């Protein structure tokens, strides 16, 4: 019999993660799965996610019939184990999907071989989710005062854990031509959606409000706002 490689597989996951109820979450493998024997055949690698210390209660497996009914159709493995990527995606997050959940690798047996399947679960590096009932509020970054007739830039950003459904950022003022959108992977299973608005303020805009609204999967919304203070531009003859 082929030995079970306990302690020889090496990997690591994010131990604590935030997830917005009704949205989705990506739980990455931070330390990619490695084995001292080197490159093992991709065709024999099987990635599994299961409940803590209960390997039989699978929340992800390539054979969907062996997955807990509550998770069927809601989980998938992103990437390929051959590329050392075992990131888990859970869609339509429910408030009781808090885990902990653990990543497991199986090296499937060959039909012509009588050996058992080599298995190891990373039960010491499981992930637990903090369920967020409400979406995070966008953060606004902007100069304190705008100058009449001159470009004025406001940045609105919000973090999230679901790049499959990036939150949409919209403004109460401005047009699409005045907006630049950026999406960043900030690591550890989190991403940042950013919207940059540049406007030319007029005198009538003084003391008006500008709102940035983030719309998440669900849909769920949150917003941040600022009061615009517009200063009259000095003429060349003024000091």
TrEMBL record:
<dbReference type="InterPro" id="IPR007110">
    <property type="entry name" value="Ig-like_dom"/>
</dbReference>
<dbReference type="InterPro" id="IPR036179">
    <property type="entry name" value="Ig-like_dom_sf"/>
</dbReference>
<feature type="domain" description="Ig-like">
    <location>
        <begin position="138"/>
        <end position="227"/>
    </location>
</feature>
<dbReference type="InterPro" id="IPR013783">
    <property type="entry name" value="Ig-like_fold"/>
</dbReference>
<protein>
    <submittedName>
        <fullName>LOW QUALITY PROTEIN: myelin-associated glycoprotein-like</fullName>
    </submittedName>
</protein>
């Amino acid at each position: 019999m082929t030995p079970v490689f306990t302690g020889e597989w090496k990997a690591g996951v994010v131990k604590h993660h935030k997830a917005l109820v009704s949205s989705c979450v990506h739980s990455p493998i931070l330390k990619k799965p490695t084995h001292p024997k080197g490159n093992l055949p991709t065709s024999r690698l099987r990635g599994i996610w299961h409940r803590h210390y209960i390997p039989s209660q699978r929340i992800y497996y390539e054979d969907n019939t062996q997955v807990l009914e509550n998770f069927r159709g809601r989980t998938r493995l992103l990437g390929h184990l051959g590329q050392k990527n075992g990131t888990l995606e859970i869609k339509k997050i429910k408030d009781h999907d808090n885990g902990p959940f653990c990543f497991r690798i199986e090296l499937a047996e060959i039909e012509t071989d009588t050996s058992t399947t080599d298995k190891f679960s990373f039960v010491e590096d499981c992930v637990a989710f903090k369920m967020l009932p409400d979406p995070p509020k966008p953060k606004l970054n902007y100069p304190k005062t705008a100058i009449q007739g001159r470009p004025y830039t406001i940045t609105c950003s919000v973090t999230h854990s679901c790049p499959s459904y990036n939150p949409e950022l919209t403004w109460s003022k401005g047009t699409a031509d005045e907006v630049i959108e950026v999406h960043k992977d900030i690591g550890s299973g989190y991403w940042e959606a950013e919207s940059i608005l540049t406007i030319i303020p007029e005198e009538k805009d003084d003391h008006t409000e500008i709102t940035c609204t983030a719309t998440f999967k669900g849909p769920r919304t949150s917003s941040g706002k600022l009061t615009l203070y517009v200063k009259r531009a000095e003429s060349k003859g003024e000091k």
